[in-house]
Write a structure and sequence with these properties.
Blueprint (H helix, E strand, L loop, with lengths): L1 H6 L4 H6 L4 H12 L5 H8 L3 H11 L13 H42 L3 H13 L3 H6 L1
Amino acid sequence: MATIRRQFKMSIEQRMARHFSESFKRSKVLEIEQGRSKVSEICKEYEVSPTNVYKWMSKFGAAKSQIRMIVETNSDTKKIIELKQKVAELERVIGQKQILIDFQTKMIELAEEAYKIDIKKKYSSAQSATSDRSESDIHSH
């Protein structure tokens, strides 16, 4: 608490006696919303608490007009971009896999027509035939 008080040049009584005009508050909120200033800079320059600045923002800022202001750090923005790139890459891979599946399905259909056998049925029946047997039954045959 003592370190916080040392940051301010004015005493608590002096700071409490001050009054900022509505136009001043609006201009500082606009600076913050436009990215020209940060809350911490306003607090330091005018020796006002962050709580008061956030109150100004809720009263005079974009939030007042029901517009939501999203504050992100650069690392958050970078992470979002990286995640979007990862999603795009995964969607591309899924698309390639789907093309491969479609190709293989078509090849099976063509092979079934050419050789007059049911490849899908043989493959699925071979699987189901072994699924009922125990592992020792499979190895003994």
